[in-house]
């Protein structure tokens, strides 16, 4: 838990950062639904949430920078919170890339193989679970949650490596077309960037 004697401004920042994690969950859920149901409207909603995160990030970095310049206490906490916000911003940049790919997939009517759809769906669900855990870890600074996120990140990397090999086989056999291959690889890469930055954000608070 964060110190009970933390000033009210920093408590407000912690609450706002917690809200950013919740918004990332919302983007992932909307994007996954848009991907599975081929609905651009869900992607547009997710884009609106993403813009809100970017606006929040700009406000918080400005506020924390001002506090860091004036503070005689809590400087380490302020710098930590700035680092967390920066990683959330970079995770959101990864989400933006996924949203673009899913929107292109829907608008162009690009089809994925059943296996490809299953793999992307699984990665979305795993990323969503990691995001929820990261949000809880941010608020509680629970070491068990931190370890869980690290373990999941490593496990997900291994899963992606296996998926990449299977994807190459599908491409060689002609099951996967070049256009769908490009979108698939970009989505997978961006999901791993999201998870990677959430994992790094978690490391910063311990």
Automatic annotation (TrEMBL):
Record-linked InterPro entries: PhoU-like_sf (IPR038078)
Protein name, per record: PhoU domain-containing protein
Species per Swiss-Prot/TrEMBL record: Candidatus Brocadia fulgida
């Amino acid at each position: 838990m964060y110190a009970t004697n933390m000033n009210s401004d920093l408590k407000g920042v912690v609450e706002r950062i917690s809200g950013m994690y919740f918004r990332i969950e919302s983007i992932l859920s909307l994007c996954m639904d848009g991907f599975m149901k081929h609905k651009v409207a869900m992607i547009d909603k997710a884009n609106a949430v993403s813009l809100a995160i970017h606006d929040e990030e700009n406000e918080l970095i400005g506020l924390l920078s001002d506090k860091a310049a004036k503070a005689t206490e809590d400087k380490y906490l302020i710098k930590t919170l700035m680092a967390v916000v920066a990683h959330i911003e970079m995770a959101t940049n990864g989400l933006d890339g996924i949203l673009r790919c899913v929107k292109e997939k829907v608008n162009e009517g690009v089809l994925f193989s059943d296996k490809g759809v299953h793999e992307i769906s699984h990665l979305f669900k795993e990323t969503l679970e990691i995001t929820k855990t990261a949000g809880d870890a941010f608020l509680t600074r629970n070491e068990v949650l931190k370890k869980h996120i690290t373990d999941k990140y490593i496990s997900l990397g291994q899963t992606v490596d296996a998926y990449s090999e299977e994807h190459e086989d599908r491409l060689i056999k002609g099951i996967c077309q070049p256009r769908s291959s490009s979108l698939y690889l970009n989505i997978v890469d961006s999901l791993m960037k999201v998870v990677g930055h959430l994992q790094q954000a978690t490391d910063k608070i311990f």
